[in-house]
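Let's study a protein:

___
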Amino acid sequence: MVPTVPVPRRPFEPGDPADPVCRWYENELDWTTVPGSPVRLVTGLRFDVLEVPAEAGFPALRHLGPASPVALHGERMRLLVTAGSAEELPGLLDWLEWGALALDLTAIGAGGSIEAPPPTAGPKTRRGPRGASRWLRRPEPGRMVEPALPTLSALGGGAVGGGVGGAPDLVRLVQTMATQCHRLRLRRACAQPLAFS
């Protein structure tokens, strides 16, 4: 009898459909991913993302419910908001009278994507390369994320959870982040040495 040699196993590659990160997002949260290294989460389908400097984002967290997912990517904060919010951001900033200023506040919506933080990585976890994404507030498997996301339909709802269906108010969130971005910009400008001619 001739001994059989097992077929060599294909090496595991990041972004492979068998990648545990892809599987977790697709199976546990029903979010669309883009395989690769790193895995990316597609925006505009289940959620959009507002991105600001982390220093400007932390004060805005008070406007979110505890189930609202928030990620950190290096020195940037990414807050998940209702799908379609990216399209509303320029008009909302104009309405709030921030439209004329260059703010370090961006939106990622339909057709975009963000790096997927490792599902198990939290704010105190130092996994991955420096500047890699990690969850500050991780989405919970088995729970619908959409009801916890800030939305314009929460207008007139009052405090956190006071909007339609308990959703946080996107207007208050954007107002706070715009104010903090402007303060950060002014602080940085004041720290610059004056140029004398």
